[in-house]
Amino acid sequence: xxxGLLLILSGPSGVGKGTxxxxxxxxxxxxxxxVSVTTRRPRPGEEEGREYHFISPSRFQELIEAEAFxxxxxxxxxxxxxxxxKVRSALAGGFDLLxxxxxQGAAQVKRQWDDAVTIFMAPPSMEALKERIAGRxxxxxxxxxxxxxxxRREMAAYHAYDYLVINDRVETAAAAIxxxxxxxxxxxxxxxxxxx
Length: 196
Ligand code: 5GP
Fold this sequence. Notes:
Elements: E1 6-10, H1 17-27, E2 31-33, E3 36-38, E4 52-54, H2 57-65, E5 69-75, E6 78-83, H3 84-92, E7 96-100, H4 103-112, E8 117-122, H5 126-136, H6 141-155, E9 163-166, H7 170-185
Parallel strand pairs: 1-7, 1-8, 2-7, 3-4, 8-9
Antiparallel strand pairs: 3-6, 5-6
Helix pairs in contact: 1-7, 5-6
This protein binds guanosine-5'-monophosphate.
């Protein structure tokens, strides 16, 4: 079975990556979303093993020492990481795997996995981003300010990515990413060939 595509989606907090990912998963049956490990506390409604694996900082440290991570980074004061074992098993099973990770993690993966397809999602404007983060109602004023500051820095990293998608409407952004997946699978350099 052909190995699946490794896709990386980054973008500032509040840009709508989660919503677009859910729309994509509904459209693309061969696509799986990687579940990261984090030291941050679950938000209301989040479930262990669905959004993240929620672990302690000491357990995270053990996993770093055991070289269990394909990449890891500190984001907004908490640790987040992608386990190598999960990536390997998804791709070997012929699934495409989407990593929704920050710009530091994306750079680490791209260094090791030249074939990974990197997509940066940007908001239509900084004002729209601020409204989305505040509207979520899950972060304090100070946390919103911090996330906006990080967002400004993250936005500057978009030119290191293969593709840029503006999330104006969820359906349009999801359709753009689905088109990227289709185009990547048709690349001759990736092994696409006729049946003769
Ligand atoms: P949140 O706490 O809002 O779920 O996520 C905060 C940030 O952490 C987002 O930008 C998200 O892309 C990033 N993130 C989530 N999982 C990982 C991961 O496994 N590795 C890295 N490097 N970043 C992650």
